[in-house]
Fold this sequence. Notes:
With about 425 residues, the chain is α+β, with helices and mostly antiparallel strands. It has ten helices and 19 strands.
Amino acid sequence: MTYTVSSMRKPPEGYAWSRFGQPEYTDWLDESLSWKHTCYIGDWSFLWQHRITGPDALAMLGDITVNSFASFEIGQSKHAIHTNKDGKVIHEGVLTRFGQDDFMLHGRGGFWAAHYLSQTDYDARVERDDWFVLQVSGPESVNVLEKASGDSRLRETGFMRVNALTIAGHEIWALRQGMAGEIGFELQGPMAFKQDVYDRIVEVGQAFGIRKLGARTTMINHLEACFPTIATDYIPAIFDADMTEYREAFTASMPSFAQPAYIAGSYDGTDISDYYRSPVELGWGRNIKFDHDFLGREALEAEKAAPRRAMRTLVWNSDDVADVFASLFRQEDHYPFMDMPRDQRGFMWADKVTVGDGLVGVATSRGYSYFYRQMLSLCTIDVQHSEPGTEVVVHWGRPDGPQKAVRATVAPAPYKPDRRRADLRRA
C-alpha cells in the first residue's frame, strides 16, 4: 500500500482506538479528577513488550536510541527514543534494565530493535514477551500500593526505578514514573497475574477513593502533563522509501486498531513527513545525548543547537469553543463536532495555528480538562511565538470545510504542575 496524506485522511469504517477497554466506569468527569485528588488504576497491557538480551544488547540499543547509556544501572528505566536518519521519531517507549544483559522495552520500539538487529552481527536477542502493565497514579497511589503489598520499601523507590512487590501472592515489579504528572507507579509482571493484582488493588483502593480509568478520559492526563503520543501528536517516521522493508514488517505485526495512524483537522500537510516530529519538537531534547553514535545524530545535533519549534500548551478561548457547539443548533453548515473530552477515534487531529496570516504551529491532542474547566491542546510552535502569554489562533475544522477561528493563548507544557518526583515519605 502507498501511504499518502489523502489516504490517511480516510479511516476504515468503525475505526477507533479500543485499546483502553470500557469507555467509563463512574463517568469521565469523575474519573478525570482522580489523579489530582485520589488515584486511578488503568490498564496499559496492550503495549507490546520485548525482552532484549545478550552480551551485545546494550551496544545494539545504543545504535538506535538517542539516550545515553554511559550510566544505566540495573533496576533503572529510561524513556528510550528511536529516530530515523533525519532525526524524526520512529518509536519511543520505556526501557528497563533488569540485569547486566537483560532489558525489557515497552512500546513499539521493540519491533524496530528486532528489525535493526536482523541486519547486524550483534550477539543479542529480541523476543516478544507477555506482561501486563497497570498504572496506579495520583496522590494516594503510594498509600494504596503500600497497603496492597504490606511493603513500606515502596517509599524508597527512586524516580524511574523499579522495585519488587508482592501483591495478591504474586511477585511483580513497580516502576515509579507517573504518566499523569503525579506520584505514580507502573505495575508489571506475567500476564497470568494481572487479574489477581488488579482486583486486589481495586479492593484495597476503595478506602482511598480509587477510580478505574476509562477510555474516554485516559488520554487527558497525557494532555495536561504533556506526554506527546504516537499517532495522536505525531505520525511515526516510517513512511519514507528507505523504511519500506521495516514498515511492511511492522504493520504486519500490528492489530487492526494500530494500523497505522489517520489524520484529521485543518492543517493541510502536503506530505506525510509534515506530520513527523523530532524529539526536540516534542519537548524531549533533554533526552538526546551526543556521547555515542546513533541514527539521526547529525540532524539532531544541528536542531538542538538551533531549534525552530518548541512544545507548548494552548488554552483555547471558551467563548469561541462554545460557538463550535452552538453551530450544531443552527441551520447553516456547522463546524466539526468536538467530541468530549476528546476525540475517541484515535486520529492525529492536527489543526493549523496562525498569527496574522502566517502559519506558526500545529495543535494536537485537543481535549477538555474538567479540572481546569478549559479546552487545551498541545502545540508544536515556532520558537519566536512560543513565549507563554502569546496570542494565537487555532483553526478548528477541515482543510476543505467550515473552519472556526478559535483564539488561544500559549502556556507552558506541561500545563499541570509536575509532581512525579514528590517525596514518597511524606505522601
